[in-house]
């Protein structure tokens, strides 16, 4: 149990909090503090994504304002990335931040190239924090490489003293607690305000503001919203055809470079090689390695002037030009609590010859199906192909199978055809859950694949495959239970 742990300041970098604890603890070596707080033996990566936070949280004494969610949201660099992760990816990263024996690969690798290697300060924030809290600290927003000015004071950031060039670093205990460098030069006197006379200065200021907007609104921004807005704007600009296919990748590249200029992009850290031939597919569709957040911010500025406008500006209705519509779409799983409700927010579209395919998955139950539409007319085609009935369906189906398990096993041993007289039997819709349940019941009575198929108006092979699939699951389950018992 720790004796104390300092309270955090607004937007304070997590490493800055640990450093303040280090100064107050009297411990001579930072690496000892790291092991004491987080049970790690390194101070590399400047706490870009801290790990083993649950160890720290369990050892902070008394009532405190810290939680795993608050540290990640208010003091780590992950919120800028969160809108570009799926919920599953984000929760996996959170799990590793809480407790892991290994390295946090996903978030850490993608964030590292965005964070400055040197600690950076706004000279006016140094003075303002000192006057308000009695000490200065490291602001998280100032550490992103492409944020070159303070969003609050519009002054250029500094990573060393302009007078003596003394750098500000973590490793040799030179983080600033007062608005002076280690040689006693008064840093607020070097504050240099941005001038909005040129395109570059305006762009630098806009990028800083939009980065701050992303961090402050990360809970309201999600990957499906960004993907949909890209689709709307790309349709409006003509980069995507009405059938959903990219048709002017080269035009987008030329327009993008012409809008910002190569020179201005290089000042922000974007090289011409990053605007490659698959630029549009990767970033507009959010596929593959699309995690350069600066490029997303610049694309949003290109389309609408700012990130806020991009996400909130009302667009002319593009619904008729989008295959399967803008969504959300209905879940078709009759067992799902959101059955027939528009709960599906993602549609993955792809094209083959004259047909566009859309794949839909319900987050609530895992039910996944595919629809088709004509590439030219965008009219939906008949038929829905179920790719995966999902975990909820399989669990419920397994429960029904177990009710008839012993009778089914006995029927397979006897394998006698017990033809029943034709009578009016109400047959549910084929492949519905009620139909599957009836299949188990009928087969346990008639003891024949062929007779079951006749009654349910399906094929013998269909009946056989359904029963065998469940027998394999039961066998695997029994094996796993036997192994647990041995262990």
TrEMBL record:
InterPro entries per record: TniQ, TnsD_C
Any Pfam family the entry gives: TnsD
Coiled coil: none
Domain Transposon Tn7 transposition protein TnsD C-terminal: residue ranges: 211-475
Boundaries of every TniQ domain copy: 4-157
Top-level taxon of the source organism: Bacteria
The name this protein goes by in its record: Transposon Tn7 transposition protein TnsD C-termianl domain-containing protein
Native source species: Paenibacillus foliorum
